[in-house]
Amino acid sequence: MTTYRVPNLAKKYTNYDMIQRHTEIPNFPDGRVRLLAFFLNRGPVRSAEHSELYSLVTALVQMGLDTHEMIDVHEEDLKEQEMRSRQLKVLGGDYFSARFYQLLAAAGQISVVASLSEGICIVNERKMNLYNRMRRQLVTAEEYVNESVQLKKQLFLSFQSMISAEEVSLFDRVLSAFSLFDMLIEEIEHVRDMERSRYRLAYYQILGHTDSNVKGALNRNELEPNEWIQLTLKHRTQEFLTDKLRHSVNDTERFIENEISDQVVVQEILKMMESYRTYRAPGKVV
């Protein structure tokens, strides 16, 4: 079995002093990247030969997109440090994304540049459509989950043609599960951030369990940040999201153990799921 080194290789690009000192960077998408590397290694010779490179550049592009996602476009009159952080998010996202062109071009993998570029276009188009509908309050909780999972899958689907035909369906299903896990962890970790939770699962959970006055204030975006935090504590929103993650992980483990006959695949995927299985939400605010 090929040693999985992608997170360490990525540190050359993600551990950039200026970015780390002045702004936040997103979580490394380790579960999805590890899954991609595993299935590419089991695919045709060309896929296995370049599996590490393909996994690395996909991780960097995903981090570029996720970094841009963290930019707050609503705040006005930012302080100098906040403005610098915003600027570095823009530059950091561009920096991560640009590396994939450089790495693939240096390896002569121009066709993969085109494939990933198409994936980026699809992600941005779907994201824009989703956010436009969210702002008009036209998205249900179920639609939000389904579309968020698809957004987290999209770049990785660029490599479906390089995966063994008999394993494409399995790759897609497990990738969907890992994408759901990553989405839920993001929601858990930002549950107390009112702007980042707007029209997302925390928002829908509170909206479905509160009175008309609070619903009106939520819909009109009239709540103060501390009022939002109190609502998340009152309705145990972090616990709700954590339970959803735990149930999703358990359901996926049952599928892996009961529906896959290849025990190498079973053991490897279960190993990849360890970080999701043992995930603990951040401490509560008192």
Description:
By secondary structure, the chain is an all-alpha fold. The protein contains 16 helices and no strands. The protein has helices spanning 6-14, 17-22, 30-41, 45-49, 51-69, 80-106, 110-135, 141-153, 168-189, 194-197, 201-207, 212-219, 225-234, 237-259, 263-272, 274-277. It holds the Pfam family HEPPP_synt_1. This is Heptaprenyl diphosphate synthase component 1.
In short:
InterPro entries: HEPPP_synth_su1. The protein is mostly helical and about 290 residues long.
The succession of helices and strands, N to C, reads HHHHHHHHHHHHHHHH
Shape: globular
Summarize the amount of helix as a percent range. over 70%
Number of helices: 16
Share in β-strands: under 5%
Uncertain residue segments? none
